[in-house]
Amino acid sequence: MSTLRFKAIENLNVFDLKTFKVEKKLSEYFCENVFNIDTMRQYLSKDVFKIISTAIDSGEQISRDIADQIALAMKEWSLSKGVTHYTHWFQPLTGATAEKHDSFFSPLEDGRAIERFNGGMLIQQEPDASSFPNGGIRNTFEARGYTAWDPTSPAFVIGTTLCIPSVFISYTGETLDYKTPLLRALQSVDAAATEVMRAYFDRKTTKVYSTLGWEQEYFLLDLGLANARPDITLTGRTLVGHSPAKGQQLDDHYFGSIPSRALNFMMELEVECMKLGIPVTTRHNEVAPNQFELAPMFEEANLAVDHNSLLMDIMGRIARKHNYKVLLHEKPYAGVNGSGKHNNWSLSTDAGDNLLSPGKNPKRNLQFLTFFINSIKAVHEFPELIRSCVASASNDHRLGANEAPPAIISIFIGSQLTEVFNELEKVTEGKLSPDEKTELKLNVVGKIPEILLDNTDRNRTSPFAFTGNKFEVRAVGSSANCAEIMTVMNTIMAFQLRKFKVAVDELIEKGLKKDEAIFNVLRDYIKEVRPILFEGDGYSQEWVEEAEKRGLANLITSPEALATETTTKHINLFESSAVLSKREIYARNEIKLEKYSTNISIEAKVLADLSRNHIIPTGIRYQNELIENVKGLKEIFGEDYRDKAEQQIQLIKEISEHNFEITRLVKELLETRRKAEQITEAQEKANVFCKDVIPYLNQLRHHVDALEMLVDDEMWPLPKYREMMFIK
User: Fold this and answer.
1) Coil, strand or helix at 648
2) How many Å apart are CA 690 and CA 708, to the nearest integer?
3) Rounded to whole angstroms, what are the CA distances from 460 to 125, 287, 342, 537?
4) Is 162 exposed, middle or buried (0-12, 13-18, 19+ CB in 10 A)?
5) What single string gives the DSSP state of each residue in 407-463?
6) Cβ pair 432, 516 in contact under 8 A
7) Which of 69, 472, 486, 680 gives the lowest tally of CB atoms within 10 Å of its CB?
8) What DSSP designation does 223 have?
9) Would you say 454 and 416 are in contact if contact means Cβ atoms under 8 Å apart?
């Protein structure tokens, strides 16, 4: 193994850095490989184009005849791109994208062949569903599952394959993917928000979109060094590794000059993103060494989710061309910042108005306050659900560390908006006097745009922060699918807006004017949400104690968080919004728990293998060299050798102690893991892996890392932190 380590370092010294050249303006690459609206306009008749455009906007079904015409146009466009196969590209609950390629090729009876692609092929495909996670919905022998075309997300070409974004459902109709519940949640929030807009603010509003701007953090690691680390290869993170003398404490990597090799990777990645219609605009160094960030412009949430899933796939493909491995694990290295994926969420009307942005008049600002306060109220009602939807074994390493928000869900709105809340809380119950209305319009609501100019500071310790015209959900992990948090956010917002409208309408029926009714309901909401509003240091022990007093849950581990998913409250939420059925909720919860247990189980086996086959033999080998050295000193100096061999003897003792502890801990770890694997109930199994298995991983790491500092560097088999993080 040490040969692999030094060979990888040697190869880095002779690495041939080839500069990637961007041949034309990025705007000229944009959507080059996407069957988008502009391309459809070129390949479809006016009537068919109008039908597909309406279907994309309204979600109306497309007839088989129209689907045949769209499929023909899609095939002609694809063939012009050199495409030979098509696939329904979907997002199963594995966390990765999936695809089954079928050829356009179709033989004829006379020995000739043609390329065939019709509406039936476009609309539906049948991949084997038995091997995808299903949470008990399907038996292994019940293999049939279906993918169905999602026309709201455009098809695209990668290589010689036409990729058709699709949903994935079981033979009996239950959802087996991330996209289906997201589409349902988006439909739900559209209906609820549009109803509020039309009733109180703008009768011309016909649709409300959820928008998303994600920020993807990641690490780059030389492929040779990665291949010399079995833990990175199999788990995505380092299970052992002593922290280097220099880490991120100088903050010299953050926003620094991007290393040439990494920049070449980024440039090629950006070009490929542009070709696929992913509007990436930002790139920079992140805090930890060899950590970076990529971010696009805001998009409609469904499209943004597809683009992020696609990005994570193509990042790996492009990285290999530059002899890199992309690490999307939330905490690949101990002791330095992990990686998140901040989800910036908002709502926007069909006229392009951001509902979380104030305007130039009191009516527009009251509209802003309505959606702003309802967003906070939604999170206040369902904080455990937000925590559970970002739960994973990998994200547990990151949440609460000094670069990510804590597991306690709180909301940051800034001091200026807090003052607005204080004023609104004083609103008189019932009808408002003319003076109070004037005061509210001029000095409270009217000044919101002005104060928001200075409300751009952020609280990096807050899991849910308002940042000017959007809410930033900071607890999402870098490897997560954005669909899950977007499904939750839009579902709870739809639920809350429906409650809000009922409350306002009841007050209007009692004789209050529209604005008075809205102010009354918002005032009550402000009083109710006070416990979840927090402006201070989320990392402090004081906040942990204060949060407990406020009744806020501190669900530190994933099993704790996931145990809350199947409460009656959460089931009623999803069922009332027609987003997930009770059966689907339980199935997804079981899948997450099983995935958690499986990840910890794999880490346990990998660490046991590393310890037994690489670490302990290395310690013994170096110990033997020390013993031979002591013997030689004794031969030369006789009984006086002890003083001269004191350090060697001490090293021999320390190595023996660590090797003994590693051997003991590995044996106990594997036995504890074996017992945990025998548990059949998913929640109990996850609890045992969390409480009983993980402590062994931490203890083993302590002894292995101590041994790394004792053993001769030339003998250590694994690439060290200083090499992985600092060799560019």
Assistant:
1) helix
2) 26
3) 44, 13, 11, 9
4) buried
5) SB--EE--HHHHHHHHHHTTPPSSSPPHHHHHHIIIIIITTHHHHHTT-----TT-S
6) yes
7) 680
8) H
9) yes
Coil/strand/helix, residue 287: coil
- Helix axis angle for 514-529 and 362-381, nearest 10°, is 40
Residue in the structure block whose two tokens are 């391309």:
39
The CA angle 545-551-555, to the nearest 5 degrees, is: 75
Could you give phi then psi for residue 206, rounded to 5 degrees?
-115, -15
* CA 326/CA 291 separation, integer angstroms: 10
Contact 292, 217 (CB under 8 A): yes
Exposure pattern of 254-285 as b/e (b: 16+ CB <10 Å)? eeeebbebbebbbbbbbbbbbbbbbbbeebeb
pLDDT of residue 456: 47
CA–CA dist 249, 266 (Å, integer) = 25
Q: Which amino acid is at 282?
A: T
Q: What is the band of 603 on the pLDDT scale with cuts at 50, 70, 90?
A: very high
Q: What is the pLDDT of residue 132?
A: 66
pTM of the model: 0.93
Q: Residue 499 CB: number of other CB atoms within 10 A?
A: 17
As given in the structure block, the two tokens for residue 649 are 């003897």
Cβ atoms of 414 and 457 within 8 Å: the answer is yes
C-alpha–C-alpha distance, residues 151 and 310, integer Å: 17
Q: Are 489 and 305 in contact (CB under 8 A)?
A: no
Q: What are phi and psi for residue 241, nearest 5 degrees?
A: 145, 120
Q: Both tokens of residue 326?
A: 């992309």
Question: Are 5 and 716 spatial neighbours (Cβ–Cβ below 8 Å)?
Answer: yes
CA–CA distance, 701 with 354 (Å, rounded to integer): 49
pLDDT of residue 156: 97
- Average pLDDT, integer, range 172-189: 93
DSSP 650-690: HHHHHHHHHHHHHHHHHHHHHHHHHHHHT--SHHHHHHHII
Q: Where are the beta strands (DSSP E) in 478-547?
A: none
CA–CA gap between residue 1 and residue 618 (Å, rounded): 10
Token output for 652: 């021999």
3-state secondary structure 48-94: HHHHHHHHHHHCCCCCHHHHHHHHHHHHHHHHHCCCCEEEEEECECC
Distance CA 419, CA 454 (A): 13
Give the span between the Cα atoms of 180 and 578, in whole angstroms: 11
Contact, 357 vs 370, CB < 8 A?
no
- The vertex-553 CA angle with 547 and 556, nearest 5°, equals 105
pLDDT band, very low/low/confident/very high, at 276 (cuts 50, 70, 90) = very high
Give the residue ranges of DSSP H helices in 116-178.
Answer: 119-123
Phi, psi of 109, deg, nearest 5:
-65, -30
Structure tokens at 251: 């903050």
Name the maximum alpha-carbon separation found in the chain. 106
**What is the DSSP code (8-state) at residue 211?**
E
Does 109 or 202 have the greater pLDDT score?
A: 202
Tokens of 614: 């690489």
Give the count of beta carbons closer than 10 Å to the beta carbon of residue 17. 12
DSSP letters, 241-257, are -PPPS-SSTT--STT-P
Token reading at 356: 């979380």
Beta bridge partners of 99: none
Residues of the chain with pLDDT > 70: what percent? Answer: 93
Geometric angle at alpha carbon 708, from 702 and 710, rounded to 5°: 110
* Bridge partners of residue 210, in order along the sequence: 347
Q: Where do the H-state alpha helices sit in 510-540?
A: 514-529
Other Cβ atoms closer than 10 A to 451: 15
Q: Residue 580 has what pLDDT? A: 96
DSSP state of 113: E
Distance CA 366, CA 686 (A): 46
Residue 683, pLDDT > 60, answer: yes
Pick from 172, 177, 29, 36: nearest CA to 99: 177
CA dihedral (407, 411, 415, 420) in degrees, to 10, reads -160
